[in-house]
Structure formats: C-alpha cells, structure tokens
Records
---
Amino acid sequence: MGHSNRKLNISKLMTAVLALLLVLSSALCVAAADFSGNCNDGISWTLQGGHLKISGTGPMPNYSENRLPPWYGYAENILSIEIGNGITHVGDFAFMKLENATAATVADSVQTIGSFAFYDCSAMQRIHLSNNLREIGRSAFERCRSLKAVTLPGSLQTIRNMAFYRCESLLSVVIPASVSVLEQKAFAYCKSLRTATILANIGELPYWTFYGCYELQSVSLSASIKEVGVSAFENCDSLTKANYGGSGAEADSVMQQIQTSVPSLDHFLPEQNIIDQNHTSTTTSTTTTENGTSVTTQETFFGGQNAVIETEKVTQNNGITITMDALLGNQEGWKDVDEQVTGALIGSPNLQNVQVNVYLDSQSSVSGEDLARFEKKDINIVLHTAQGATWHINGENLSAGKLQESYNLSYTLRPLTELSESQKKAIGTGTAYGLTFHGNIDFKVKLALPLEQPRSVASIFTEEEGSYKLSHKVVIDNKRNAQFYLEQVNPEVEYLIGINVPTALDDMSNVIVPNPQPGVYVPMDFVENVPHLVSPPISSLGVSFNQLTWILVGGMVALIVVVGVVVKLMWNRKLKNGYIPPDYDDEDEE
C-alpha cells in the first residue's frame, strides 16, 4: 500500500500545483483586464480599454514612492489618462512612470498639479492642461521625454522647481504673464526647445532656467525681469536672438548678463515684440555612409502665437523625405502650416515621402477648410489627438468641394464583458471592444488606435443586417497601436474589435503587419506591400503582460513535468537494483 500511496501522493501534489498555477495565471490575466476602485470617499478611478479616468469631486489624494496609487498594478496597460471634471487637484506621484501613456487631458476644474504627478511618463506626447490651472508642482512633468507640445494657461501663477526638466522633445514654450513664481531649473535640458517666451511677472529669471537647451534659438523676456540668474542660459549655444520688454540701462544690463553665458547672442531687440514677428532659423548637416551621402536641413519657423513648425528635409540618393512637426497655438496656425508645406515642396523634385504631424488640442477636431489646404497633394497629414490616437490622412483623398465644416475625431472605446450571439459568432469568447466615433469621416483614413496587447492580432468588424462582417485584421505594434484602414467612419455604427480571434489566427496570410515585428510570420510578399511604421521595442523583454504570464506558467509546468519524469526514472532504477521500500506490501502486486 505504501508504494501506491506514494504514487498517489505525487499525483495529488502535481495536480494541486497545476491547479494553483491555473488559478495564478487566471488572476494575472484578470489583472491585465479592466478595473475600477476608489481613491477616497469622493474620488474613483476606472481603467477601460487602456484609458484611465479619474472621476469625482474634490482633490485627489497625494501619493509617494512608498505609497503608490491603486492603478499601479496595471501600469503597463495604461495608454491614456483623463482627469475628469470635478477634480480640483492632481495628487503627488499620481501617474509617475506610466511608461506607455501617450496622452493626458486635465479638466478645467483642476487648479493644482502635485509634485512628480507625471514624472517620467516617457511616451507622453500631448498634455492638455486645465484652463483654470494655478500651480504646477515640483518635477510634475520631469522626464516626459516625448512631450512636444504643452500650452500653459493664462490662469497659471506658479511653476515649481524642475517642472519640465528634461522634456527633451519640447519645441516651444510661452510662460504667460499671470505667472508670478518661477522656480529653478524649470526647463533645463529641454534639448529640442527652439523658442522661449517669458511674459511672467517676475523680477529675476531663476538659476538654470534653460540650462542645456542646446537648440534654443530665440528668447523673449518681459520688462519685469531685471536680473538673469546664474547659468540661466548656460550651454544654450544656438541662442542668437533675444527680445527684452524694457529699455535703456535695464536693457543693457540684461543683455550683459545673458552674454556672460551666451557669447553667440548677436541680436538683442529691446522694445520690440518678438512674439508677433515671424522668423525662421536653418541648420544643415551632411553625413556620408556606405549607402551614399545624406544632406539634412532643419528649419524652425516661429509664427508668433500662431504656430511653431519644425521641418526636416533629408536628401539621399536623389530622393527627398520631408517631415514636419506643427504645434498650433490657435486656428491661424493652419495657415502657417500650409505656407511651410508649400515652401518645402518648392524645388524638391523626386519626393519620396512628405509627412506633416499636427498636434491638436483636447477638442480633437479639425475644420474641413483647413484640411482642404492639402487636397489632391500626395502628403500624409497625421493628426495627433489628446486621446492618444493618431489619424493619418493623405491629401490625395481630400476633395475641397465635399469636405464638411468640421470633423470630430474623438471616440469611445469600451471593453465588452457580455457579448451578443452575433458577436460571439464573429469573435468567439475572447477579448472584445466596442468602438464608436463621435463624428462622421467621409474620406479614407488610417487610424492608429492605442490598444493593450502588443503583437496580438486585432480584427475589426462592421455590423450588417444583424451580423458582423470582418473588415480587416492587423498586428498591434510595439507602441500598442492597431493601424486600421477605414474607408469612412459612421458615428451611428458600433464597430467590433476582437483580439486574437481564432479564425484570424488560423489564416495569417492577409494580416497587416507593421515592420519590424519579431515573432510574427507572414508571407514576405504581402508584408512588403503594406504601409509600414517602424516601432522600437516597448521594453527590454519585448512581450506584453499576458504573454509574459503564459511564458512563466508554461515554463513552470514544463519544469514540473521534467522533475516528475526524472523522479519516476530514478525510482524505477532503484527498484530494478533490488531496493525494497520499508513499507512495501506484497498485496500491492496483486
């Protein structure tokens, strides 16, 4: 009996371990789904479809490195952030190191943003701030390395230490006249900063304000500034133009103080409003590689309060690629974009690609009149919205006579927990989302929609007469974008998105695959004919939370099986060598 009991106990043990692993894997997979909870009595949070929303009335709690917010267990899945109306304060450390979040919207009810609130949100490209914001806390946006555009509202009064320190992609900043407190190192090491306008009502530009802003080319200072702090412009080697609102001896003094750090400053314009003056700076570099000579020309256009536009033109092997980043201060900025595009195209034969990135405000809308500027032009216009999605439009698909007055680009993406019979028939019982748009789009677009599972296959369906028809399927890239190609968008239709639909995985021959996507195998002749977007790895592991979970579970199961086999073989060998267990019973053989 002892031998049988021993075998039975081993079987029970392995069964128990396997059951425990299944429970653990289920719990981990649930953790990657959608969650909600309370921060305190008046504030709640929900995480749905990668969108984290904070709701309620009153201030958010302050957190710390030792007391993190409740949504940090799902940080990898957070792609966008919304601070809802009614919230008055964004808590300290609230969204620190949410490395996959690309956009944030802060409602107008918010008056203060706490210290380290968005610290090291390295993928954050666009933040829309409250129009009633009064204070930005210490290091609130420090190390938001992808942040290109931020508009500081006219209500702002205080900017604390290192608020935008190392925002290395930020192109332009205007500090409004309402600001009366500007602390040290606020914009230090903003390496891409081209223009800075300080209208703040302060007596001294603080220590290290723009230290290490290597690309800073022009600056404007309000008349209230009488002193320039130590190293405020240290290592600003590109600074050649400055404007000062004062005059006389004050202007001479400020000029001398700036020139102690920036000998290259050659244009100092007292009593002139550089904010309303359009100007362009240009740099050119040449690189020779085994593939030939490449000439890169970078132009930064400063259009006053209307727009800041950075253009990069690369000429290589008789082909030209143009990339333009446009930060619009108002509707008039579209005119500047049009003029810059027209200027870039003149004298540029053999164009291979022209892409214009336009960063929109929280309204996520664009007028038909502005889109009509690019009709019938082979130009890719990429509209970046506050929700994190990007809309790719080719000018050849636009017709001025048919465009609407305005296009609303916002949408709602919600997880589906209960599927109808027709939905189950289309996608099975896997992860599903309902997608609805808030406006009609009547031309072809490519929508890069942020989803949670990189390298999974996302299938999009449209409903027709009670059933769902597959439109197409795409591999979610390493930036967590599913790039859907849509003929048009109908706000009255709910689109169905399924993740890893079994029928889609059975046939990978017509899946749209962004390049490169390691581990995804489809016919190369198909991949080469698909528009590609190159995406860097999202982490050193390069796998999603769910994938990592199943890898660990699979590894543990394999280990248990191997150990079980080894133990069994060793036991059989001992028996063959004459070993008799102490509690052996002859009846076991019968």
---
Amino acid sequence: MKRTIFDEMATSISEKERRDLVKKINRNMNLNDTRIEETIYHVEVSKEDKDKYIKEEILKLGFFERLILKIRKFLSGKTEEAAYTDQKMTKLKKTILKKSPGITHFDTRTVTKLFAETVYVLFLKTSSLVDLFEEFWKKGDTFQKILTELVESRFPGIVKTIDDLLNDEDAEKVIFEKETKMALKEEVIKRFNNYTKKVSDSIFYDIEEEILPLYYFRPIIVFPYYEFFKIFGFNPYSENAIYSFKSAPVFTCMEYIEKIYYAIYMVLKVAQPVKINPLLGKHFYKNIEEEKIETENRDSIQDMENKEEVPNENSSAEKNSNDTEEDKTLKWFYKKLEDIYEESKKINKKIPLVEIIKYYRNDYYYKLAFYIPKLRFKELYFANLKIQVLEQVNDKYIKARNLMIERNIDKFFKGKTFVRFFHFRTYTGFDYEKIGVGYFTNIRSMELLFNYLVYYYNESIRNIIDLSTRTVLAQDKITSTNLMMQISTIDDAYVKIQDFDKSLSPDMEDGKLFLRLRYGLANDNAYLKMYKTFILQKNKVSDDIIQRCIEAFDNIIRTYSELLNSTQFEVKNSLAAHYNIDGKTKSFRDFLVDTVDNIRYFKSLLAQVKKVEQGDIK
C-alpha cells in the first residue's frame, strides 16, 4: 500500500518528539473556548430563491444539456427542477471523486483518515505559533500598546495623557469658575473630541493593512485541532499510541470542516510575501525568544523543525550574514507563516471542501457567511485613549484643585506672613494611616479662617461694619443690631480659635491627654477608642467654629447686598458719601462692594479647602 505523507512523518519522529507533540496538542485542547469569535454562520436560502436560481440556470443550458435533463426527468418521473437538482448533486459527487479520490465514502457517509492526515500536516506547520498567537490576544493591553505606538509614530502632536489636552493652569480656571469635577470632565471631553477630528483616517487605514495578516492567520493557527483529531479516533495519551486515524461520520466533523474551509479561505486572502508591521514583529520576536528559552533543554518536534527552517549557527550562509539575532528570529517567524500559507494552498487545491460541504448538507445552494475582520482601528484607538484620559480626570482634578487653592491663598495673602498654629497641626514621626486611625480634619481651614480674621476682618472689614452702623444704618436699629451680633460671633470665633490651639499645648489638660494618646497608640490598642473619641470631639469643635463664622459672613453679605440694591433716596445718598479708611478715600458704596467681594472670595477658598479636607472629589 502506498505510504502517505502522514505515515512517513509518523514513523520519522522519536518517542520524545511524540511526547512533545502530545503536549502541543494538549495545549490546543486547553485553549479558552472563547478565544475565537463566532465567525461562520449559515445563510438560509429560501425555497423561493432556490426555485428562482434553478429556473434561471435551466434557461441558460445548452441544447445537449437540456436534452439530457429531459431524459433524466422522463426516467426518474420527477419534475424538471428536481431532476436538475439531482444532476447538480451528481456533478458535485463527480467533482469530489475526481479532485480527491478516497477522501470520503459516499455509501457509508464517512470522511476517511486521509482528510485527518492532511489536516495533521497543517497542524504541524501551525503548532509552533499557537502559543505566540494566543499570548498576543489573551493580553488585552498588548495590541492596544502596539497600536498606540504605531499611531504616535505617524501623527505629530499626539495626545498621550490628559496633560496634553488640558494643562494645570487651564484646569485651575475651570475648577475655580465652576468648582466641580464634572465641569472639568466636560472640558476634557470637549477638547478630546476636537483633537480626534484632526487625526487623518488614512493613518489608520495604513496601519490596518499592516496588521490584517495576523487576523487572517489566526483562525487556522488556533483551530481546535485536538477536538477534530479526536473524532477520527486519535488518542495521543495512549501508552502505545500510534499516529493513525480512522474514518469518521461526516456529520460529526462537518462543523470542523466548515471551520477549516473558513480558516484556509482567510489565509489565502493574504498577499505574498506575508509581512506584518515591524512593531508587531518585534512583539512576536520577544515571545519567540521566550519560547526558545523554555524549550532549549528539551528534545522536541519544534527543535526538529527549527533545524530544517532556521539557518544553523555554523552554516556558511549565516557566517556571511549581517542579520541580527532579532532579524533571524523574525525571518523564522515569517517563514512559518509562509509555510502555513503554502500548506493551506495545497489543501485548497487537493480537497474540494466546498463541494464536500454542499454534498453532505444535501443542498447545492447551501451558503456560508464569513465574518471578515473589518478593523475599525480609529474607533478602537480613540475609544481606548478616551477611557485612559477620563481615568486621569480624578487625579487631574485633585492636583489642579490643590494647586489652585495654594496659588489663590498665596495671592490672597500676598505680602502677609501666614500665621501657623503652634499645637493644632500635623505631627511627624508617627504613621497614623498605617495603623488605620484618622487625624484632625480642619487644620488647613482653621488656619485659613484665622489668618483671614487677622489680616482682613480685624484690620478692615470690622471698621467698615462699625462705620455702616453709625452712618447708613444709623436709623435702622434692627439691621444695625443684627450686624453687631455678627461682629460678636466673629470676635468670639477669633478668641476661640486661639484657645483651641492652646488647648493642645503640653501644658493644658487636653494637650497632655493628646500627647499620651499619640504615643500610646503605638504600643497599646486600648488607646485606640479613646484617641478616636478625642479626635472626633476636636473636629466637632473646629467645625462649629468655622460654621458659625460662615453663617456670620453670609449675614453680612446679605445685609450689604440689600443696601447696595436699595432704591431709597436716603440710603443712596449715604452710600455716595466719601470716607478715608485704611489710607484709601472712596465712596462708601465702593467700600461695601469691595467688602462683599472680599468675603465671597474668601468663602470660595474656604469651601475648596474644606472639600479637600473632607476627601470630597466631586
């Protein structure tokens, strides 16, 4: 009996090579079932359409063909259409027998081992690339990183991070005006959309052409060869396993035959010589090198293939070559793809896959629809980039808000020495976060309020309030009394803030307790509850002081706003009067406008500081 290619290969490999091949088959078996998209589906052709096709084809028949059809119709007793369908199916059968005799047994409706052996040769060509292809698609970020590199290499002024769209200064302006993270996010999206319109579609079309071969080769490389061979009785785990197959029921393997047809169809769409973008080649180069390191101490079939396909280090050809190790490995990779291409072409020529599928589906007009990858790289690239940029909004907001606060505080208190608390402060030398305990919440906001009272309220605003009660509000006792109450509240807060700081001094009872609790936390968990209670109490006191001042300032703003908007002649006349306050001479209306603006600006700063202290990132 004539020996097949498969028989020759089966007898030529050693036991160790066989075991290595078993491992490769096993890897195919264990690949994630979701690794390949559903790319093949049957297109239902209606009876009406089939009848239409048949009638059109009959009309196109020549004289002798029509004569034969009439004889068939007469002998079979069938309709002309049914006789013509039988004729088409007979033609399919003859084509199969002529193109690949012995590939199938029509009487038993089986596919012979010749089919499995042919696919097995293809498997040997693809086995060394399975891990590389799977690794490429399993790591979701690998492809995106390569795509990003490709785009960045071809488009100047590329956006990589949120900073490329919105600098810190612009971010500060947005936050200061609208005070929300959502406003910042909306600005980023607006600038991102404007940016995407500037990037030419042609960049992505070119990239697609350089990447498509990987998509076209993927179905054939990650084809479920193990499951297919198993249908033909192949058991690589048997101790006495011999690489032989037996015939298999055609309907059991029909799904795989259709997938093989699709896989080969995809490979043959690639133009020769097979080339991919160098960046992708470098990715595979690295993985190939890792594969070589893993297998260098094992005798395997891959080693045997490498000996045949990769130039030997001692060969004269290599000695005369200037190729780097990377170049050599990439050539090895490209040669593997070329080998797969050539083997696919052989199978396509040798096995009438379309005819076998149609014949055993008993439908000459049976159609398969294939999903051909349409790589929308522009949408993919920008969708991923947008996600990355928006993920950075939170950090950008926090950074810009903190910078804005510090810059505006420095601007607001320019020329003034900012007063720091002696005792109500952050103490170094102990990691409170490490042991999971909180700390004073309002240190920064209390300092800001105290400095405002020292440099603005005490030096200027209080004098303006006093003057207003003696002039424009002299006849309005209710409003005047209300303002005096606000003064009292703020004056009281000024004293309480200083007392609050002093209370934490080591000379004071609270200070002694705080010191004991701080150092006790490191050694005794019993102090934990007492410490938390102490912190909560102090936070409550400081919150109350700040809130009372805010309410007092709100009352002052409301009172002066009503005065400035008043239509009464007496009020307007009083506001038009000029005074000299703190060396400045202008109308009292201007003094009140400046006061209201000053308090509002301070309140905005204080609100931002409070958000930071409370961890509010909205």
---
Amino acid sequence: MKKSLLLLAALVIAPLASCEPPAPPHTGPWDDPLADGETAIHDIKVGTVAADQEVMVRGTVTAKAGNAFYIQRGSEAVYVYGYQPAEDAYVPTIGHYVEVKGTTDAYNGLIQISDVTEVASIQAEGQEITPVAVTNVASLTAADAGELVTFTNATFYEGSVSTTAASNVYVTIGGTRATVRTDRYSGETVNGAFAEIINEASYLDYVNFTGPLGWYNGAQFALVEGATISVSANPTPFDPSDASAQASAKLELDAEYESLKAGVVTDSIELIDFSFGYNVTYRVENVTHADEFPNAISVSGTTLTIESPTPDELPGGQFITAKLHGQLSYDGENYGEELSWNVRIDSFNPNLVTIEEAVTAAQSDDFNSAEWKDNTILRGYVTELYTDLDGGLIQDGEHAVMIYKLASLNFTFEVGQLIEIMGSLSLYNGAPQVGYISKVVEVEDATIEQPVALNVTTGDEYKALDVYDIHRTITVTGLTYVSTEWDESDPYYHYNINFTLDGEAVTVRVNYHVGNAIMDAYKAFTDSLTAGDSVNFTGSVGYYSGFQLSPWTADAFVKA
C-alpha cells in the first residue's frame, strides 16, 4: 500500500540573521518584559483578564486557518479569530513576531481573542517554538490551547472527510482517544492533503502530527496551515492479546455506548460487531420487571431490541433497567474482562405524528408543555440535503420540517427517500426543526403524500406565505434582481441575494452548508446579473426570523 508524507506548510522557523559576534539563540523581543500596554497571554488564558476586555498581546504566528491564526510567546499561546485586514494592510504570516489588538472572548470553553482591530508585524523572524510532545491527552487543559504540540506513532483507527465543514482523523495516543481536526477555514490545500491521509491510512497505521492544540469543548489537534501530518505503516502486526490494543477497543466501545450509561433508550439499536480487529459478543442480564415484560430489553446478535411498555402498563413514572455486556474476542478466543453498560427505558411510547401536526404544535402557545415534543416520530420524503449533511428537509404533501445534524447519524440520506425519524421538535428562530435525532429508517407508507410544490408568481402570493409553508418546496417566477450582499473577506459564509417581486422585497439567503462549489456557482451567477434582470427560483421556503428563499443546489436560479 502506498504511503505518503504530507507537509502542509513549513513549521520550522528560520533563526535570526547572524551578526558579529553571533547572537545567542532565541534572542528577540519575546525575551523582553511585557511592553507598555501588553497583556500576558497566560493571564488571558487562565481568566485573570475578564471576557470582553480590550487587550494587546505579542507573539509568533505559528499557524493560520482562514481569518484566524495562532500566536505563541514562550510557552503561552492564544487563538486569534476573525481578523479581516483592510486592503493593503499587513496579513499575518507564519513565523512573524506580531502585535495583536482585540477583545477577549469565551467560546466553547476556550478563551480567545476576537473582534481584532489591528495586527502589526514587529519582526519578520519570531521565536523558534519547540513543540511540546503529547503522550497523555487527558492531561491537556484549555490553558494549553493554541500551543504548538507534537505526537508520534499514534495509531489510526478511523477518518471522515468533508470539503465544506470539519474533517477528522481519530487516533489513540497512549491508550486514549484523540482527534485531529480541520474546519471549513482550513482551505482546499489542507483539506485535500487531509483527505489523502485518510484515504491511504489503514487500521493501526502510525500517525504523526505537529501543529497547534485546538479546543472545542475539549482538546483536539488543529490541522491548519503551518501544521504537518503523516502516516506510515505500523511495523508491528495486530496482536489481540496486546494490552494497548484491548484498551483501544474498550475505548471505542465505551464511547459508542456512553449514552446508555445514564440515558433513556426508546428504540432498538444496531450494536457494532467490529472493534479494532476484535469481534464483540453481546448479552443482556438483570432486566427489571422481566416477569411482566419479558421482551422489554433483549439482545440478539448485534441488535439490542427495546419494546417500551405504555404508561398504563407501567404507571407511576417507573422504568425498566438492564445491563448490556460486550465481550471482546478474536478468532474464537476471548480477551479481557467484559465491558458493561446500563440500559434504561421509561414507560412511554413516542408519538407518531404527521408533519402538519408537528408544525401546528410547534407554533402553539402551549408548545413547551407538549409531552411528546422530545420524542416525536415523523415520516416524510427527503426533499433537500446540505452538502455537509448538517441538515435536510422532509415533506408530507404541503407540509415540511427541517431535520438537523444528519452527519452524526449512520444512515445514507438521498433526496426522494421516504424516511421515519425520531427526535426533539423545536423552533429555531421561528422555524420548526427536529434535532437530537435518535432514529432514522427508510419506510413504506402509502398514507404519506408526495411533496407538493408551491408556485408563486406575484408579490401578493409571496406576502401570503405563512408558518405552514416554512421549508416547503417552492418555485418563484419573475424575480427582479437588485443586489448581492457578499463579504469578500469571508466568502464562505451565509450571504443574501436581494430581489423584488411586483415591488415586494424578496431575500434569498445562501447558507454555507451548501458547500464551497455551490456558493462559488451562486457568486458567479450573481456577478453575471445586472439590476433589473429577471430570474426564476426553485428551492424551499426559508425562515430565519422572517421569510426568505433557501437554495440547496447549484441550479436553484435560472434567468427568465
């Protein structure tokens, strides 16, 4: 199998120019006391400096990701987000020693600098930063975020690629799970190199990394411009009796069923049957109320079956619990102790409701008291999907709802499928959606109507849209182009295209989840328009604190 070493950007920074006599290593402004008005990065990271405070910090630029970058001074580092330099202004360059002015900000447990007002280069060659070797992921804290780190010979076990959102490589370091992650700001070069790593890596291959420590509700390794990653063959063949391999398998299984330990299971679960080269044999024991409900919780092969009793059958808030066990084996021989997880079901049956009923309930004044809103089962035809599978739409006749965070589900979504989902119904900026999805299956149901498109040709028809039209498939003809609100400094983000229809203002809101290629196609299309051009639209009725049109594919617009 072909292996490659991918160098994404030069990480080693050149030493300072020599002079007579030679300067000692690492001599520069980073060794000086804090400058007038400078805030110590350490004080920002540990909370000595409150959030929303204007600060000035100095450090070496170690890595970049779109309009964000990392700076480090000595052993302290910080993430700088949202810098959009004006034309002809200094652009942060890896290796430069810079001064940054901005505002402290707390985001997902990380203290960073945002609302950047100025970045200036103090010196073209900064301090050479020696990456810290990571051997224990659990010891990392938010105070370490942003620092240059490195690890070697971590074992690869899985990867996922997205060209528009985050891509991940999952490894184990010293028996602990860890994630190497890109995001949509990492750029095509980094994401392309990352995709090659993932496609060529095999289970238990060695992965080496050097780059900044990222943080998003926990430690991650940020694969951005300035970082390096490589993969190589593991010279040691898989040994099922090896304690490290067993530890990795147990970590994978525990992470897979973490939700069972304290959560509530409402439907059958397909259990994984392959874990780091092992097979897994499951069994269930200690089922409460087993005499009354012998089939409430059972396992057959790799399927955990749940048959929830009704409230009448199991009244008074009672519940049924059991213990699920998993035994690792290889070639017929068991290894290690059994793993176990708690399984619990409450005495309720989730409600199967129509999309119309769900939308009606979501818009009602007493929606928050609806007992079934957290366990809603809906059926509908898939009409739209985001490129990164963060969201999609399902429709039943004239009514539709958004389903959110599809990428986290082990299901292949396709437009035109009739699916059943179970999740939590909520309103997001006035639009109904189903999130926290615990189940999705393809079904057959003759009672579900094919999606019916809404055809709009006049401004009065557009003004007549109501909450029952949100997310519905729509065709609008005769739009008059006005302008495009496009942020050139951050091209891959939500933006608006403005039209009128019989004098009525109509906004098309482009969401970055459609993907870079589709956004580029929209930008090229709007660049070809002049004010007054007539355009037809096919997409869905969007809603974000007001009605908009929502395109999902590259062919949403055509000139009339």
